[in-house]
Design a protein that fits this description.
Protein name: Elongation factor P-like protein
Family: Belongs to the elongation factor P family.
Keywords: Elongation factor, Protein biosynthesis
CATH class of the largest domain: Mainly Beta
Strand content: over 45%
Radius of gyration: 20 Å
GO molecular function: translation elongation factor activity
Pfam family, one: EFP
Order of helices and strands: EEEEEEEEHEEEEEEE
Length: 187
């Protein structure tokens, strides 16, 4: 896969280890004939370390040999998040620190979660781009507050706090963008 085709969320092989691309920065050349540089910030999925990769536009990396399995969230304990394959009922455990960003958008029994399986071990998860979560606590809405663009903090069932419109009430279900953590609308 060429450097210009690699996007955030792609899993590639770098130094014989699978790496999840987290961000991409493109540097255009300032002189004629200069090569465009692609700088990638990645996370090694085996050692869990951050990796910086710099490539020219004509260079590339291989796709990682991964299995993506649809899983359901079973439960979470002090050390790990426990997942179950929805097809063959195989169970996986993923360390909490490896799923810290995704945990704030996940609840037990949530569907649409993909486990990244490498050498028969779960090394990461992918969650849907949007999730629906229930508001557990927020300031009461006041009649007439829907005309302005003001927002208020909303506490959601997973412990995540986001900003949302003033007219929302406790118990309502809202859509949240998992990439940015922003309110998208009512569910």
């Amino acid at each position: 896969m060429l450097a210009k085709e690699i996007k955030p969320g792609t899993i590639v092989v770098h130094n014989e280890s699978p790496c999840l691309i987290e961000s991409v920065q493109v540097q255009s050349p300032s002189a004629r004939g200069g090569a465009t540089l692609y700088k990638f910030r990645a996370r090694n999925l085996v050692t869990k370390t951050k990796v910086d990769i710099t490539l020219k536009g004509t260079e590339g990396l291989d796709d990682a040999d991964f299995k993506k399995r649809e899983v359901s969230v079973m439960y979470q304990d002090a050390e790990a998040l426990h997942l179950m394959d929805t097809e063959n009922y195989e169970q996986y455990a993923l360390a909490l620190e490896d799923a810290s960003n995704e945990l704030q958008y996940m609840k037990e029994g949530q569907d649409g979660v993909l486990a990244l399986i490498y050498n028969d071990e779960c090394v990461g998860i992918n969650i849907p781009a949007t999730v629906e979560l229930t508001i557990t606590q927020c300031d009461p809405g006041v009649k007439g507050n829907s005309a302005t663009g003001r927002t208020k903090p909303l506490n959601l069932e997973t412990g995540l706090q986001i900003q949302g419109p003033e007219y929302l009430k406790e118990g309502e279900v809202v859509k949240v963008d998992t990439r940015t953590g922003e309110f998208l609308g009512r569910a």
